[in-house]
Design goal:
The complex is a heterodimer of chains A (358) and B (186). Chain A has 358 residues and is an alpha+beta fold. Chain A is built from 11 helices and 4 strands; from the N terminus they run αβαβββααααααααα. Chain A starts with a helix and ends in a 16-residue tail after the last helix. Chain B is mostly helical and 186 residues long. Chain B has one domain: Up-down Bundle (de novo design (two linked rop proteins)). Classes of the chains: A alpha+beta (358), B mainly alpha (186). Chains A and B meet through helix 2 and helix 10 of A and helix 1 and helix 5 of B.
């Protein structure tokens, strides 16, 4: 786990550095093409560089606030969401984190959740209303434990930075591409290069950079999150010692086809399951998927629990079915309430991985 | 001359290794202490919640005095056991857990009680506290395991022996206890 933290810290620095470099290069290309000449390029390089550094610092310290605001999340209290709040506190204790993350709720029906922040002391967990309503306690615990492992691993720092910085690159590139439609109006005024040839070459370079930059940024985003989700699933189970809770939660999420309207390309990778739903569920993950196939994650979790897919019937749903059957038969409803008995569960959860936590 | 330098270098390196092991032992011990205090916070919270629950429930349950008395007694015993070390305390707390389980099982037979908002929120708080206790115990036991390993394994056991680091007791969970009183609230 310490390696994971170290690699996330390193990756965060690397990401900020390369984004600054990338934007500086983009600035140079745009400056050279639009303003013209080397001086124009260097001028805009400086401007872009400073903006990129400032944006990185802003992203580091308040990226979580931005992400939460973009996602339409509002902070919850113990009074407003007792169960969610308690579950977060439980998982904080299980993870041995210094303080409980702030709890946010997104008022949307699609079940999903994410964590953000820069370290365990400055972290937040956001859960959609649909998730709070749809999941029972064990399932919610699984989801929160998954998010808690992202927090503990410092995945949140890297993932939040990716969201903020990728968002910016897309913005800048978009801006430039739109501008180039108006024609390089300033180019003729530049005077530095007499031959139109050099200007044309720079223009081509600028366009190429403007296309390549967001693609590079996006592929970083895709690459990071797929592997991380498996890891967070596994270490989440290490906290709850109950793979079935998360498996059932993921199953419920997979069964829900509603997309999350507040999620966008820049924040999609933060969520526990892809908030931008594809119509078909694929077996293999493509280059442009932010998440591993959810069925594969469920299968892995079921394997950990040593049970088959029949165990996926959620506790609450099973209880409801039992209660309905009981009512139909004119029996008292006492049996329906024993949730765990209704849900088939393993007698012996497998021992957690031998890695000592903390 | 060279020999002296080599010896000094070796001593310095050894010193650094020793200091590192010592510090990591202290760190582990602090983690054990800290996670133990986590358990105590949650145990105390449970002790504080129980009188409220008993108060709310007792008017409805005139025929179940025995169950209520058991809970109250178990609570008192658990508070008393607080000063007798992890093992005694674990035992008393497990008794309390059992008595709460039977109380909630009885609550199931009273539809009025089950629908009572106070009871519902107290149930949620007690479930959460039970969970917190078991997760704190899980974290405590994991911490104890790493700490004890460090104390008993070579080479850190040498340092541990020199500075009187002693192994700690686990906080034992009751048999088959992964689901503490499972009150399905929804």
């Amino acid at each position: 786990m310490y390696e994971q933290i170290r690699s996330n810290r390193r990756a965060s620095w690397l990401l900020m550095g390369s984004v600054v470099a990338l934007l500086a290069a983009l600035g140079f290309a745009i400056g050279a093409a639009v303003i013209g000449g080397l001086s124009g390029g260097i001028g805009l390089l400086g401007v872009f560089g400073v903006v990129a550094i400032a944006w990185s610092i802003l992203g580091y310290y308040s990226g979580d606030k931005m992400v939460l605001a973009v996602s339409g999340a509002h902070q919850a209290t113990h009074e407003s969401e007792p169960q969610l709040f308690n579950v977060v506190e439980e998982m904080t204790i299980a993870a041995g984190l210094p303080n409980a993350p702030a709890v946010y709720v997104i008022e949307e029906a699609a079940p999903n959740a994410f964590a953000t922040g820069r370290d365990p002391r400055h972290a937040s967990i956001a859960v959609t209303r649909g998730m709070v309503q749809m999941l029972d306690r064990e399932e919610l615990q699984g989801v929160v434990a998954h998010e808690m492992s992202h927090i503990r691993n410092y995945d949140i720092r890297f993932a939040t930075l990716v969201g903020i910085l990728v968002g910016m690159i897309a913005l800048v590139a978009d801006f430039f591409l739109r501008m180039s439609f108006w024609g390089g109006f300033g180019r003729r005024r530049g005077g530095g290069d007499s031959s139109g040839n050099a200007g044309a070459i720079l223009m081509v370079v600028a366009v190429v950079l403007a296309i390549v930059a967001p693609m590079a940024a996006y592929s970083v985003q895709f690459a990071i999150s797929r592997r991380r989700e498996y890891l967070a699933d596994a270490s989440g189970v290490e906290l709850t010692r109950n793979p079935l809770g998360l498996a059932r939660a993921l199953n419920d999420i997979a069964a829900d086809a509603r997309p999350l309207s507040h999620a966008n390309r820049a924040t999609a990778h933060l969520y526990i399951a892809n908030p931008i739903k594809n119509k078909k569920t694929k077996e293999v993950s493509g280059v442009f998927d932010t998440h591993p196939p959810i069925q594969k994650r469920i299968a892995l979790l079921l394997e950990m629990a040593h049970v088959g897919p029949e165990a996926l019937v959620s506790g609450r749903r099973a209880a409801a079915v039992a209660a309905a059957a009981g009512a139909a038969a004119g029996l008292p409803r006492a049996a329906g309430a024993s949730g765990p008995a209704a849900a088939p569960r393993p007698h012996d959860p497998p021992p957690p991985p031998a890695v000592p936590p903390a | 001359m060279i020999a002296v330098i080599i010896i000094i270098v070796i001593l310095v390196v050894l010193g650094i290794i020793f200091a590192g092991m010592y510090n990591s032992l202290v760190g582990r011990r602090n983690q054990v202490d800290n996670s133990w205090s986590q358990i105590e916070v949650q145990l105390k919270r449970r002790h504080d919640l129980i009188p409220n629950l008993v108060e709310v429930v007792k008017d409805y349950m005139s025929y179940e005095q025995e169950t209520l008395t058991k809970v109250t007694e178990a609570r008192a015993a658990a508070i008393n056991a607080g000063s007798q070390g992890p093992q005694a305390q674990a035992q008393a707390e497990n008794m309390l857990t059992e008595s709460l389980k039977s109380l909630f099982a009885v609550v199931e037979n009273y539809p009025d009680l089950k629908a009572n908002q106070n009871v519902l929120s107290l149930q949620e708080e007690l479930t959460a506290t039970e969970n917190k206790i078991s997760f704190a115990r899980q974290f405590y036991n994991d911490s104890v395991l790493t700490y004890n390993n460090k104390i008993q394994m070579f080479p850190s056991n040498v340092i541990a022996g020199m500075f009187n680091f002693t192994t700690r007791q686990f906080f034992e969970a009751p048999e088959g206890d992964r689901e503490v009183p499972k009150v399905d609230l929804r």
